Amino acid sequence: MEHRIERIKKQLHSESYKLTPQREATxxxxxxREEDHLxxxxxxxxxxxxxxxxxxxxxxxxxxxxxELKIVDKINFGDGVSxxxxxxxxxxxxxxxxxxIECGSVEEIVNDLLEDVEKIVQSEWGFQVQDHRLTFHGIxxxxxxxPVKATQ
Length: 152
Ligand SMILES: [Zn+2]
Ligand SMILES: [Zn+2]
Ligand SMILES: [Zn+2]
What we know:
Elements: H1 2-14, H2 21-32, E1 38-39, H3 40-50, H4 56-68, E2 72-75, E3 83-86, E4 96-100, E5 106-109, H5 115-125, E6 135-138, H6 141-145
Parallel strand pairs: 4-6
Antiparallel strand pairs: 1-3, 2-3, 4-5
Helix pairs in contact: 2-3, 3-4
């Protein structure tokens, strides 16, 4: 984690931003909970546990800055909440998500898998793909194993 913070710090510096203690606290929460997809509010509550002096507005501004610098991305799984998601290091495009309609779990697919589709979009529509969002909705492995509960 320290290496990643160091690299992000360098990236901030190259864009003339400093890694202030408030920004670092926010970043640490995102790194610690990388598997999760946290809303600004979630991030704020976790930051507050360790640094009670940091306010929601500061956390929010930090998240927006990290978004502008393409360190995090924003994603919405259809519940109207923007969630912040760290980009994978070295990944050209955003990763994909598998959202379970039974239990709400979210899994990530880090491999792009879309190179062929991107080529077709480029050649058929003359469109230059910069990025994409792909969310699969379905039933996770765990839920497929659990027998359907009788409705009460
Ligand atoms: Zn994700
Ligand atoms: Zn791609
Ligand atoms: Zn499930």
